[in-house]
Amino acid sequence: MAKAKYLLVGSIAAYSGKSSAILGIGDCLKEKGIAIAYSKPLGAGASETEEDVQLVAEVLSLPPERVRSPLLNLNEETMTAHLQQDGLLDDASDLIEHLDGIEGELVLLEGARTLAEGTSLGLSASQIAAAVNAQVLLIVRYTSSLDTDELLAAKRELGDRLLGVVLNDIAPEKWEEVREVIVPFLERLEIPVLGTLPRESLLESVSVRELSQQLNAKVLCRGDRLDLMVEGLAIGAMNVNSALEYFRKGRNLAVVTGSDRAELQLAALETSTNCLILTGHSPPQDYILSRAEDLEVPILAVDLDTLTTVEIADRAFGSARIQEPIKVQCARELLRDRFDFDRLLSQLGLEPAYSMSNES
Length: 360
Known about the structure:
Order of helices and strands: EHEEHEEHHEHEHEHEEHEEEHEHEHEHHH
Strand content: 15-25%
């Protein structure tokens, strides 16, 4: 078997959509007959990183010989040990040895949260790419034309190893700007744009289960519906008429309100609410629980004030991970429709065994 090629999927900022991209790209390349392998050389938290690795392996149906867990997990303990020992890695040899024997035509390497993260450990994006002769695909959460500065800096750092970029999470009002200004500009500067992905609220959503865990909440009803996805957060602290108008503007909401505000709880249940989060220490009225049971809406009770509850929930949305099957399927469909796989394979020098359009 020919030596595997390496593609490092990185980002210039945290939570840009690398995991979603890897799952979508890996799945579609498998359908083209490309043997995929996967590794995440530098992890974050040990438990969370292991879950991410297991998810990729499971979704892409990768056998053990095509998967490598992180060489190191980046945390304060690891960094302190590195500073004390003047280096945890023996140049690039540890990484090369770690990946030695991994099977497959294309190894997808998941980069750290930023290009610079892991530099002192020898595991930044550019260091990993140089060690294993990888090309780099950057996933960029597009906010405005100001993002081009970061991309130009990345091009300067990565040089010819920068295979291309994917502009992700493009808001509807930014779509014309991206298509008519940003993409042509980047292409002129030899930064290939292999994909432009619209904002998809589902990928930024969190499950009721995740919110429950983050808030250390007690589930009062419909514990069987914790897989419902929440796409937005609303606070119920006004009169009922205003609340109804407010709630109706959202979709698949988690509504945070006082446990003594039965009228607001009922108003939320009559709109697109996938979860009620009650603050305070009084139990909800029986008819609220009954209505929630009928509508299959979980109710969570938290031992926190409203402000703290909202802050924790906001953080959960800000760092939403791709774990649920519905998110995985969404990522697949986005990449299938809006990513140039033929261009990717051409730049990697890989030949597909067959076209996805010929698949049954």
